[in-house]
Write a structure and sequence with these properties.
Blueprint: H1 8-24, H2 29-35, H3 40-48, H4 67-78, H5 83-103, H6 106-117, E1 123-126, E2 142-146, E3 149-160, E4 167-173, E5 183-189, E6 195-199, E7 210-221, E8 225-226, H7 232-268, E9 270-271, E10 274-275, H8 280-308, H9 314-338, H10 350-357, H11 367-378
Parallel strand pairs: 1-4
Antiparallel strand pairs: 2-3, 3-7, 4-5, 5-8, 6-7, 9-10
Helix pairs in contact: 1-4, 4-7, 5-6, 5-7, 7-8, 7-9, 8-9, 9-10, 9-11
Length: 388
């Protein structure tokens, strides 16, 4: 236990969550990986246990706990060896729901946030576009005002939970002539006329449904606008910091899981008359990897601590995701090598881990975008400020 950040209450929660995952998730992971989506009943079970409401307000069914409960939630889900399952859960909880909580009206929170916390409704966040990717400002989807409604046209892609979610949090340009200062965010019901989604086949994250979504003259009531009109880009940028440190935490957790598995394997696998954890070259490789994992983990914990205190951590969160996801890919690659031929077999965890981990440096802002953000802050002295 890291006593600097985790209390006995935290560790008690970790143990109970581990037990829950072992009973309710692990037996079904391979089924979900094959079918390409997570069964609906698990969402309800997560909601009943309060897992979707760890850091959300009590008035809407949340628990209003500190962010280190969220860290435990993220870390333990990486250990069930299904990046897709984990992504489905945290994309709902910390992408879609974040906007509902931060920008939503009381009406929105009652209609969407409360049932999201109890697991009755599942959400997705729709920002990336076929022609945009990490270029959020280059968004082409529009929302045109028409009386008391908006009419949305455009498309989104790479949307986690995009096929089976109950609602969609969608970014669109309400004043295209203003560029990124003319963007707004809306929440849409899945059954709204004009919304269609197609499932995308992926390298990894097989257990999560990922969609390309089209919006064809979708009519959205004015009350479904989140926050203020034309403030959407600022809202997105503000929440990117938490998304990126979440992906940093996910990365150090899956790397740690891979390393622990490899160490256990090495202690049992014999070659040339002794277990392979006695060969100096392999021992030193493990030492290097353990050092890298620990460095990232401690850095990520320090950022979570600052985020929990309300500090704005754009630079540090960008560094977290940039370095941690690169580290995770490299550690998992090396751990697969330590398993030899067995690492290449699907019945062992490394093959899936390797595929799932590869999205880390891409999703939530590519490593190239993150490097430019960091460079702007360090070299050009650019300041990113929270929305007031």
């Amino acid at each position: 236990m890291n006593n600097m950040y985790f209390t006995e209450e935290h560790e008690s929660f970790r143990q109970s969550f581990q037990d829950f995952l072992l009973k309710e998730v692990v037996p079904y992971v391979n089924k979900w990986e094959k079918q390409g989506f997570v069964d609906k009943q698990i969402w309800k079970k997560f909601g009943e246990m309060g897992y979707f409401g760890l850091n959300y307000p009590e008035e809407f069914g949340g628990l209003n706990l500190d962010l280190f409960y969220t860290v435990i939630f993220l870390e333990e889900m990486q250990k069930v060896n299904s990046g897709g399952f984990a992504a489905a859960m945290w994309a709902h909880t910390y992408l879609a729901m974040t906007h509902l909580n931060a920008e939503g009206s009381e009406f929105i929170k009652e209609k969407y946030l409360a049932p999201s916390i109890n697991g009755e409704k599942v959400g997705c966040l729709c920002i990336s576009e076929p022609f945009g990717g990490s270029d959020v400002a280059g968004m082409r989807t529009t929302a045109t005002k028409n009386g008391t409604n908006y009419i949305i046209n455009g498309s989104k892609t790479f949307i986690t939970n995009g096929v089976f979610s109950d609602y969609l949090v969608v970014a669109a340009k309400t004043s295209p002539e203003l560029g990124n200062k003319g963007m707004s965010i809306f929440v849409l019901d899945r059954e709204t006329k004009g919304i269609s989604a197609s499932n995308l086949e992926k390298l990894g994250w097989k257990a999560s449904d990922t969609a390309e979504i089209a919006f064809d003259n979708v009519i959205v009531p004015q009350e479904n606008l989140l926050g203020e009109e034309n403030k959407g880009f600022s809202y997105i940028m503000q929440h990117f910091a938490s998304e990126r440190v979440i992906m940093g935490v996910n990365a150090h957790a899956r790397a740690e899981f891979a390393l622990d598995y490899a160490i256990q394997y090495m202690s049992e696998r014999k070659a040339f008359g002794k277990t392979i954890d006695q060969f100096q070259a392999l021992r030193h490789k493990v030492a290097d990897m353990a050092s890298e994992v620990e460095m990232c983990k401690e850095f990520n914990y320090s950022i979570i601590y600052r985020l929990d205190k309300g500090q704005y951590v754009v630079k540090e969160a960008s560094m977290s995701k940039l370095v941690s996801t690169k580290m995770a890919d490299e550690v998992i690659y090396q751990c697969l090598q330590l398993l030899g031929g067995y690492g290449y077999m699907e019945e062992y965890p490394m093959a899936r881990l390797l595929r799932d981990s590869r999205l880390g440096p891409i999703g939530g802002g590519t490593s190239e975008i993150l490097r430019e953000i960091i460079a702007k802050m360090i070299i050009d002295k650019k300041e990113y400020k929270p929305v007031t």
